[in-house]
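Deliverable D5.2: sample structural annotation.
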Amino acid sequence: MTVAFVVLGIAAIPLIYYLIALFSAWRFFRQPKDASDPSFAPPVSILKPIRGLDPGAYENLASFCRQDYPVYELVLCVDSEDDAVRAVVDKLQRDFPNVEIRVLLGSGRVAANDKVAKLARLVVEARHEVLAISDSDVLVSPDYLRTVTAPLREPGVGVVTCFYIHHGERTFADRLQTAGMMSDFYAGVLVDWQLEGLKFTLGPSITTTRAKLDGFGGYAALENRPADDLLVGRLIAEQGFEVRLLPYTVSTVSDYHSIGDLLHKRLRWIVVMRHMRPWGHLGLLLTQGLVWSLVAVAIYPSAAVAGGFLGVYVALRAAVTWVIGARGLRQPHLWRSMLLVPLWDAVAFGIWIASFTRNSIRWRGAEYHIIQGQLVPVAPNRVGK
């Protein structure tokens, strides 16, 4: 009986975590918005490392050419042989003659992480001190630059990041990913924000300055490492600056074509996290409310335990997802994904278990080990292009 009560106690921990996540989300989205300061509009270099043509590539890039902002440039680094991307860029230059759009061909470097190698060159070639870095599949509103640069007027803010949402959901895998993002990933982000302050950035949108990047050696120091978005925030925070998370969203293209595609990408991500944040990865076990509720029912099979644990689990997961996705990020159709949250929790637990069976990741067509935070090709002569 003592063992049963211990298990019941442990099974309650994820429910407490969900309460913390609910409070964190409620508190975050209740913050007053930063007062705008039209006089603060430093020139900005928008940096885009591009490899291959994303769905909706023209509209995604064009959204950065429609910014309500006085002085900015758009600098893209593309592969020299990628004619499809270059055709899109040529059209942008014709359609937006008043926007300074520059194209760099190739990174000029040999590195495991080609995206970061391109960013290293982009930072060197950028003309302005303030840098807005984003993925090639990001779509933004005209107020994007004014919003993400505004916090930099505060001396203590070192880097600004924001949430991202998927648009153009077409598959069941897309909807399942959305359920996981709103209920699980963003819940963890907001708990981190509440408990210790954010120490990482979200890759689709990172705004900082050249000086802050130089403070840790810049992207050249990261070009053979995974999780560059996590590391940029961590290394700027280690310099004593704040990582500012905004209650603002950009959009990214939904590209989970199948459940297999989703599982592959999420497993790769969580294996990287196991190496980058080992204790945090291990602690994910205590956030698995569905699994622990089922364990509680199996250990102490009674209507009270089943109703208590599973009922509270369902209620809290629904509340967390609603506060983050519907109330905070204003996703009106989120109800279609909310019913998938328990399924996502089961899938996420399986991915977490599977992460302990993997010692390498497959990324951009090559296999890599992660050794002391570095990407090391399994086949020594194969390095990411």
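Annotation notes: The chain has a mean pLDDT of 90. The two ends are 59 Å apart (CA to CA).
The annotation will be released with the project's public dataset once the embargo ends.
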